[in-house]
Design brief:
Length: 272
């Protein structure tokens, strides 16, 4: 779209509803071109249509192909599409997430597939389309804080020598331990959502120094407890306030020269 094509470009996962939709709106309102992605392209189209009239014409574009963050083939196809359109990404907001009912190996696997492996794979696939000054935001949660975690596991997640591959092994071990009925004796909480966000935060710490070499910032953000489908109607925060917490990290300051390797809520650093 001519009006938006020379603006910095943000890509938001799970942009069809909740925090992702409002984050897309706020990013577009702050002058970015936004690619709204969804696991059903019709939902991304509907999201862009819903935002038309609230932001500049063409400022929010739906990705015409699916981006299901839990499906590596879908990620590859979406990135192929972006590459084919010569799209360069300045801001990546890994927002898509699930909080599933129940707790067993299936729930653990599905939760990690979306909340941990999803952002990991999407980021790795999109990094070649990002240049110096880029920003990656991992939408995490206060549930991912380390307080109260078994000391042995806490030491493994915070080990300064932790690598991406060792972290992947640790997350796979959680699912295997749940499947084998030994997760409690290994110190894991009976909460897959919590483990997924602990892992996501660890990924931010592991990647920040490496991405800094390319002048790409990466931070985790907690939006607070927000009135979305996930947060429920009783949550304490509006969607616009929760999204503003995400947008701060995505745009502050412009050009990727801001903080990296941190965990933020409302623009303030919070404890891991
Ligand atoms: P939501 O209203 O349930 O929306 C979740 C979004 O993620 C939807 O767009 C959903 O798409 C998408 N999604 C789920 N699985 C996906 C997949 N495999 N591929 C692509 N998209 C997928 O939740 P929300 O409250 O906006 O949550 C957004 C993020 O904020 C999540 O990462 C969540 O963990 C985090 N968060 C939320 C709260 C809160 O209180 N709400 C608090 C802390 C952190 P579909 O429509 O296709 O399902």
């Amino acid at each position: 779209m001519p009006v938006a094509s020379n603006r910095p470009c943000a890509l938001v996962t799970g942009a069809n509803r909740g925090l992702g939709l409002e984050t897309a709106r706020q990013l577009a309102a702050s002058g970015l071109r936004v690619i709204a992605t969804s696991r059903d392209p019709a939902d991304a189209r509907a999201a862009a249509a819903a935002l038309a009239g609230k932001v500049d014409d063409g400022a929010v574009e739906p990705l015409p192909v699916a981006l299901d963050v839990a499906d590596p083939a879908s990620i590859a196809a979406a990135v192929d599409h972006l590459r084919g359109a010569a799209t360069s990404i300045d801001v990546l907001v890994n927002n898509a997430g699930v909080s599933l009912d129940g707790f067993d190996a299936r729930v653990a696997r599905a939760t990690l597939a979306t909340n941990f492996f999803g952002p990991l794979r999407v980021t790795e696939a999109l990094l070649p389309l990002m240049s110096a000054g880029g920003v990656v935001v991992m939408v995490s949660s206060g549930m991912g804080e380390l307080g109260g975690l078994d000391p042995g596991l806490r030491a493994r997640f915070t080990d300064a020598a932790l690598t991406r591959d060792a972290l992947v092994d640790l997350m796979d071990a959680f699912v295997a331990d749940v499947a084998a009925g030994r997760h409690r004796e290994r110190g894991w909480p009976s909460n897959a959502y919590r483990v997924s966000k602990i892992g996501l935060n660890a990924l931010v710490r592991v990647w920040a120094p490496q991405l800094a070499e390319r002048r790409i910032a990466i931070n985790a953000v907690c939006p607070g407890w927000v009135r979305t489908d996930m947060g429920g109607r009783g949550a304490s925060r509006s969607v616009d306030k929760g999204a503003a917490s995400i947008v701060w990290a995505a745009t502050h300051p412009a050009g990727g020269s801001g903080p990296t390797g941190g965990f933020f809520r409302d623009g303030r650093a919070i404890d891991w």
